[in-house]
């Protein structure tokens, strides 16, 4: 689990100084034209763990993930891979180290599952090195791990939401990167498929040792699946650390503006956030006034 020391609250300056991993951000500022979205953020991604980034809408969590995958150039500071600025590294080297699944990937029309997963091998291709036995092995293993091998000849367009998400994750796995970044992989999925995808992510981390960074909306899912949780608000890190160390009623109120009770999950023991009932408090107050 993550070092509890890193679970202290504070601004961006407290977020990353205590530990390190292959992927990190230092003084990272991100902007769209003249609108700054992330402010001087420091973040170290723990190797071999599942890190989940949470926060309200428009807090900068997906923007941060895009920068970690070099889809967005920093307005200030830097993203570091093995101590070197991501912006200065060759694209193929990054693609061999970091697999990134954006929030709403779009597959070419009528492409089959096998063909889409095979595209994950593009970073390993060159004009003198075309498709190899190693590529074939990586694709087959990726489809087997994500339980989509039986769908190999099916069109991606025909699949359910959960199946499509597993196929996209298989494509990212076929890259054979040590770092995997997933931006809201459960969006638009029903609860059964959400659990299916997150269980898959956990297995990839536990069995294959992948370092995973996930952006999620659901705080309870984040607390359940994360080794390391990062809570953001208004482009800054409010708290980070093991879920059991940082998920409190005070944090939920500060980050999400929600009154809640935090209790142990009866299945996993992880923090479970139970929202309060503001309508009941309002009704009780009104009854007191009118009574």
Based on the model shown, name its key terms.
globular, four-stranded antiparallel β-sheet, alpha/beta, six-stranded mixed β-sheet, Rossmann fold, 291 residues
Give a concise summary.
Helices cover 34% and strands 24% of the residues. The protein is of the alpha/beta class and 291 residues long.
Largest sheet: 6 strands, mixed
In one word, what is the shape?
Answer: globular
CATH topology-level name? Rossmann fold
Q: What's the tally of helices? A: 10
- C-alpha Rg, in Å? 20 Å
Query: Mind telling me the CATH superfamily name?
Result: P-loop containing nucleotide triphosphate hydrolases
The run of helices and strands is: EEEHEEHEHHHEHEHEEHHEEH
The residue fraction in helices comes out at 25-40%
Q: Give the spatial strand order of the biggest sheet.
A: 6-7-8-3-9-10
Mean pLDDT: 86
Distance between the termini: 52 Å
Low-confidence runs: 1-19
Total discrete domains: 1
Strand content: 15-25%
CATH architecture: 3-Layer(aba) Sandwich
Any idea of the CATH class?
A: Alpha Beta
Description:
It contains ten helices and twelve strands. The strands form three sheets. The protein has a six-stranded mixed sheet with strand order 6-7-8-3-9-10, with helices on both faces. The protein is globular and about 70 Å long. It is α/β, with parallel strands linked by helices and 291 residues long. It starts with 22 loop residues before the first strand and ends with a helix. The longest helix has 18 residues, at 191-208. Strand 9 and strand 10 form a beta hairpin. The protein has a single domain (4-290), classed as P-loop containing nucleotide triphosphate hydrolases (Rossmann fold, 3-Layer(aba) Sandwich), CATH 3.40.50.300.
